[in-house]
Amino acid sequence: EIVLTQSPATLSLSPGERATLSCRASQSVSSYLAWYQQKPGQAPRLLIYHASNRATGIPARFSGSGSGTDFTLTISSLEPEDFAVYYCQQRSNWPLTFGGGTQVEIK
Amino acid sequence: EVQLLQSGGGLIQPGGSLRLSCAASGFTFSSYAMSWVRQAPGKGLEWVSTVSAYGDLTYYADSVKGRFTISRDNSNDTLFLQMNSLRAEDTAVYHCAKMVSVAALDHWGQGTLVTVSS
Fold first, then answer.
1. Taking CA atoms, what residue in A is nearest to B113?
2. Is the CB of residue B35 less than 8 Å from the CB of residue B45?
3. Do B50 and A101 touch (CB under 8 A)?
4. I need a surface site. Which of A3, B6, B10, B50 has the fewest CB within 10 A?
5. What is the 3-state secondary structure (H, E, C) of B58-96?
6. Nearest-CA residue of chain B relative to A34?
7. For residue A35, is pLDDT > 80?
8. CB–CB contact B59 A94 (8 Å)
9. Model confidence over A67-103: pLDDT tens digits?
10. Considering only CA atoms, which of B58, B3, B57, B68 is closest in space to residue B29?
11. From residue A28, how far is each of B9, B41, B59 by CA, in Å?
12. CA distance linking residue A98 with residue A90, whole number of Å
């Protein structure tokens, strides 16, 4: 099973600041890495798939990069609605696995 | 507009069975793999199972293998999860989700709470 480790667990930032979230895989997942945003009481929302492709309707301030074992989700300038929990997910191999999540909170 | 409308769920005793349904609309259901993902209270996301577009291939997390069965009815655009021998640790909100490129989950159902307790 491929283990995804997200860091940091919590990121405290102010609106307008840049957020950089990390996801590290225990073995290469090529580019089969996705990112999701989840707000309390809501279903997750796909942000990025195949490491760097924005999903439909996702603002340009969200970007993904990386390949192999190291991936980054960047939010260029935080909007109030961006404070949420973010998960990475791989499907290079079965089982599909998620990272433990990074909470982006208001400083 | 893609919609995934879930039903089923509720309170069930340990050892019991429950069937979740997910009615799809707004896309060609038979062209996409579908998955179930769960989230225990206050915890992260856990993948449960995936079924291929035609229903001929299924995949399960070790934690549910042999107890849960995923299936689909492409003539009625509906996804199912049959859950048997339920345990307290199966308590979670269960989401159905549409897969894109069998790699990411691009649309999610609203979730349904399954509580396993005596």
1. A41
2. no
3. no
4. B10
5. EEECCCCCCCEEEEEECCCCEEEEEECCCCHHHCEEEEE
6. B104
7. yes
8. yes
9. 999 999 999 999 999 999 999 999 999 999 999 999 9
10. B3
11. 37, 30, 21
12. 7
Please tell me whether residue B29 adopts helix, strand or coil conformation: helix
Pairing of strands A53-54, A45-49: antiparallel
Does the beta-carbon distance from B59 to A91 stay under 8 Å? no
HSE (CB half, 13 Å, CA atoms) of A87?
24
Query: Using the 8-state DSSP alphabet, how is residue A96 labeled?
Result: P
Contact B105 A45 (CB under 8 A): no
Q: What is the mean pLDDT of residues B42-65?
A: 97
β-pairing verdict for A10-13 and A102-106:
parallel
Give contacts of B36 with chain A, Cβ < 8 Å: none
Q: What is the pLDDT of residues B95-105, one digit of tens each?
A: 999 999 878 99
Residue B16 pLDDT: 97
CA A7 centroid distance within chain:
10
CB-based contact B38:B93 (threshold 8 Å): yes
Question: Which residues on neighbouring strands pair with residue A64, listed in sequence order?
Answer: A73
Any CB–CB contact under 8 A between B95 and chain A?
A: yes
The verdict on a CB contact (< 8 Å) between A91 and B104 is yes
Cβ-Cβ pairs closer than 8 A, A with B, add up to 62
